[in-house]
Amino acid sequence: LTDHFSPGDLTGSRILITAGPTHEDLDPVRYLGNRSTGKMGIALAEAAAARGAEVELILGPTELSTSVPGVTTTNVRSALEMHAAAMARWSDCTAGILSAAVADYRPAEVAKEKIKKSDGALQLRLVRNPDIAAELGASKRPDQLLVGFALETENGVENARGKLERKQLDFIVLNSPRTPGAGFGHDTNQIQLVDRNMVTDFELKSKRAVAEDILDRLVAVKQTR
Ligand code: CTP
Ligand code: CA
User: Fold this and answer.
1) Residue 113 CB coordination number (10 Å)
2) By three-state DSSP, how is residue 48 classified?
3) What is the SS3 assignment for 225?
4) Closest residue (by CA) to atom 27 of ligand 1?
5) What's the confidence (pLDDT) of residue 5?
6) Does 183 have pLDDT greater than 80?
7) At the top level of CATH, which class does the domain 14-106+125-223 belong to?
């Protein structure tokens, strides 16, 4: 941790971070969700604040939270809420780091009353959620940097580069899906940083140390601008 920690190198930055899962309601008591806990995004928020950034953390539904100075948390539930919160803050930010596991689809309608079972199968119709990363990318100014995340089970670098282009990201954090101890719910993570020209491999380490590696790259890219 300490060999990466560079006090103050993010002073003057305002960083939008999305984190956690989204919950897409089916009825008053049920939702579609995923296993993200928000740990990686919270680690990023705390690390960025410690390096001097003002952080706007947009956090999906999770048990976890943070209360360090420099981090302002907006709690949201669904992808639509996360989208609205992110779009409202983006123009005031110098960078965005999109670690949230945003549901790609939501139920076409939310039942007003609890859905009753009946004989036979239940068909759910799902509709597409907005792509927050792609929309932020489409409205990105030259002074803003945008970082995405991806978890791929096959063709990781190739798929990550496709997302980099489509969403106009500056680089992407590729999570290793099969490393023991990495990913959802764990305190450690193993990543690759992927940009147009380069793939950089990192060791399995604490999410806080991974956050410092990501922020080191952000600072390095900023310095080349
Ligand atoms: N993302 C987002 N809004 C969405 C979906 C994804 O902001 N509605 C962001 C994620 O936070 C992540 C990046 O986009 O930083 C890539 O997410 P991922 O789910 O890997 O990409 P998708 O474009 O949804 O492609 P896939 O079909 O592989 O899920
Ligand atoms: Ca997705």
Assistant:
1) 8
2) helix
3) coil
4) 104
5) 59
6) no
7) alpha beta
* Segment 136-163 mean pLDDT: 96
Q: Which of 34, 75, 155, 159 is catalytic?
A: 34
Question: Ligand 1 centre and the CA of 113: distance in Å?
Answer: 31
CA of 100 to the centre of ligand 2 (A): 10
Q: Which residues pair with 75 in a beta bridge?
A: 59
Catalytic residue at 197? no
The pTM for the full model equals 0.96
What are the residue ranges spanned by the domains of the chain?
14-106+125-223
Question: How are beta strands 145-151 and 24-27 bridged, if at all?
Answer: unpaired
Residue ranges lining ligand 1, Cβ < 6 Å: 18, 79, 98, 100, 102, 104, 129, 131-133, 148-150, 163
The pLDDT tens digits for 11-40 are 999 999 999 999 999 999 999 999 999 999
* Residue 222 CB burial class (10 angstroms; 0-12, 13-18, ≥19): middle
Could you tell me the two tokens for 135? 């929309």
